[in-house]
Design goal:
The chain is mainly α. The chain has nine helices and two strands; from the N terminus they run H-H-E-E-H-H-H-H-H-H-H. It has two domains: about 1-225, no CATH class; about 225-259.
Length: about 260
Amino acid sequence: MASLWETVAYLFRTVSTRHQNIAGVYIVYRVFILMSPLWVNTFIYLLFKRMVHYFAPSRKVLSIPTLPFGVGSMLLHITACVVQLVGASMGVPSALPEQRAHGMHACMAGMALQLALIVVFIVYALKFHFDTHRLEVRGGGSFSTTWRSSWLSFLIATYASLACIVLRIVYRIIEFSSTSTAVDNPVSANESYFYALEAAPMVLVILAFNIVHPGLVFIGQNADMPGFFGTCVALVRRRIGQKELTQSSEKDEVFMKDV
């Protein structure tokens, strides 16, 4: 999906260079170019949740189960996406300077939230990294010895992808923090910055997960992870079972007292 959105963004970028007076074309380009990395982040979060479920015996990291961590990160991620979307729609070149400034600030706020989420995620991933390495050294669990299908190669691809996304976020924040429509602004006026700090990192991210494909890492019965609704249903059934067991135990105690 990220690759598709990047392709659409570059198509509309090409069209916008020929039709610079059409604001709608520029808005579509800006929205797609800003939103496509969010698909990569979502992909990484979902795969990492599956990785914890697959490799961690307790299926927890920092005493946090995968479900609350995944749901919380996704909700905050959607919030960052909406903020950037609103900012991108406001910051068109044809808008008034004040409205364009508000749009740029909204985009920067959404990117700052996205950057903060990445930092929290890296802390979470590093804890998983150390715990899994310790488990592998002790000989607990079964780990693949093939590089492309190992948990470590997948984490390295994750770290590299997040580094590329952070580089792209920093570039965008620097671009939006200055007068991005000014001709003398080298970040906006020189396209080499765009291709080196926006396009190239996204190509590397997509390439990384094609080299270390999740299908090579998650193999076997444990690779099947219950979804959000399936997990909620299982929790409800577990609660009902515990309640019925408690009521049965209370009835047995009352019966024994009567006897």
